[in-house]
Amino acid sequence: MSEAPQPTTAAEKQSNARVLPALILAMLSFSVVQTAVVPILPSLAKELDVSGSNITWLMTANLLSAAVLTPLLGRFGDLRGRKPMLLISLAGLVAGSALAVSTHSFTWLVVARVLQGAGGGVMPLAISIVRDELPKQKVTGGVAAISASMGVGSGLGLVATGLLLEHWNYKSIFWMGLIFGLIAVALVAFRVPTDPVTDKEGGADPLGAVTLAAWLSALLVAVSQGNHWGWTSTKTLGLFAVAAVVALVWGIIETKVSHPLVDLKMMSRPAVAFTNLAGLLIGFGMYGSFMVISNFAQTPEKYAHYGFTATVLHAGVMLLPSAIGSMVAAPVGALLIARRGPRLPLVLGGVLGAVSMAYLALRHSAEGDIYTASAIFGLGIGLAFAAMPAFINGAVPVEQSGIANGMNSVLRTVGGAIGTAVMTAILTGDVMKLPIPVLLPTLDAYKHAFWTTAVVCVIAGAVPFLIRTAKSATAVVGGPARQDSSPELAKTDA
After folding, report:
1. Would you say 218 and 273 are in contact if contact means Cβ atoms under 8 Å apart?
2. 75 phi and psi, to 5 degrees?
3. Environment class of 140 (CB within 10 Å of its CB; exposed 0-12, middle 13-18, buried 19+)
4. Segment 446-457, tens digit of pLDDT
5. Contact by Cβ (8 Å): 488, 334
6. For 342-354, what is the mean pLDDT?
7. pTM of this prediction?
């Protein structure tokens, strides 16, 4: 492992001002692109002349690609440098956006969404770069800002989609992703310095990479298509079985090879394992709630006697407070982590998420209820996203930061896929019979969806109590070659 000389104070300040904005924009680029197509899937189905079940592959393909490529890019970043891998990740996002702009084919649009999924590697790589480059006292704030950008970008993406569709066609959404991506590539190329820390002694693990991709693919396809195929269908159960068997084989491989893609001993540390469980639950809550709230707002009140007959833009604006809440949560979370450690913001994140969803289950007749719940939920998501990297970075050496945060990001993605599938099953399981060719969920179905998300968030808020956290906020985040006594990362039980 190699390490750059310690920078001067002036250089540290310059690095902080140059690096962090580039990384935040890179994170925003991916999160905006990932969620922007969600509210226009029905419109795309008509535009591209495909069925409603097939159009969901535009989300499934993106989630699958992000889940598979995120840990790979994170690990290769640890091995060969974070900046080159970050540029590759953004290049995939740009290439996918360019392809989406240029094609009218559904098949090629799915390929474009696969390429865009490479942007999933931005989060773990950006967090690792912050840990390497920023002054110690700035690391928590930087990590919190990048992590919270996921929630901010998701909310902004929904609003931007509605705004663009008001004036242009669906291609404008992919143009937005292309422009964001190109700017992010330029900023990273010119502002992010060469990596000070790489794992020169590590090696590749191609068999581990293939088996990881295989079981994640089987799992996510089964979860994403379960509502369409049927949860007890041969295809769904078969894919779940394949995922379980291949995951077991993958685990065996990772314990036998000398340089595993994922160090399972590291992943089994309480601070890492329970944080990943919290990440899965928070991902469930975030993606599930976005889908349910958007659908609820767009429900035609004339027929259902609930909802607000909102346009895509109006529904996106209703979710805008979640982006603002996540933005506010980043500095608040950093302050709480520095003073109390990461447990409190992660607990608060789960609690606030539960409060917002319980509020909607009880009060949903006025638009103000949606705005209020959205703001509370965004604040909770931002706090949780800020806390999870702090837990992980306090438990793993710096040369494993990329893969550790990458796997946490993967589990958020898996949780999001599960949350979306569960919410869809709840809403489609109880529908009204109306004199129109559209099936609308009953109000009780939405209430059940809100309560389910609230319960999941409560569990996410309880998980941090399973992690022992030292009272001191000093973290040891490096191996023999690098140790940081850093006040911003709480040392967690490993």
Report:
1. no
2. -70, -45
3. buried
4. 999 999 999 999
5. yes
6. 96
7. 0.85
